[in-house]
């Protein structure tokens, strides 16, 4: 992990501000969703990108009952249940 030398304090609501330099470098814009992970005691922020709930694919997604599913998964499921060969 690379240190940026940037230190920020949490405000009273537990928020931090990401400096504009970091936002530009990471292509994070105002209102972009960020995913929050914990890894060995570290908090990791990552720009959120929707993925297929079955295989993690990020392309050709459709929404079904509030979940994202790729067209490839839909075809595979259709084959499993015998709707297509």
The residue fraction in helices comes out at 10-25%
The ordered string of helix (H) and strand (E) elements is HEEEEH
Strand content: 15-25%
What order do the strands of the largest sheet run in, or round the barrel if closed?
A: 1-2
Radius of gyration: 19 Å
Shape: elongated
What is the CA-CA span between the terminal residues?
47 Å
Note poorly predicted spans: none
Whole-number average pLDDT?
A: 92
Helical run tally: 2
Q: Any overview of this molecule?
A:
There is one protein chain. The protein has 85 residues and is an alpha+beta fold. 19% of the residues lie in helices and 24% in strands. The chain is built from two helices and four strands. It has helices spanning 20-25, 71-80; strands spanning 34-39, 42-47, 61-64, 67-70. The strands form two sheets. It has a two-stranded antiparallel ribbon. It has a two-stranded antiparallel sheet with strand order 3-4. The chain is elongated, with a radius of gyration of 19 Å. The model has no long low-confidence stretch (mean pLDDT 92).
Task: Tell me the layout of helices and strands.
Blueprint: H1 20-25, E1 34-39, E2 42-47, E3 61-64, E4 67-70, H2 71-80
Antiparallel strand pairs: 1-2, 3-4
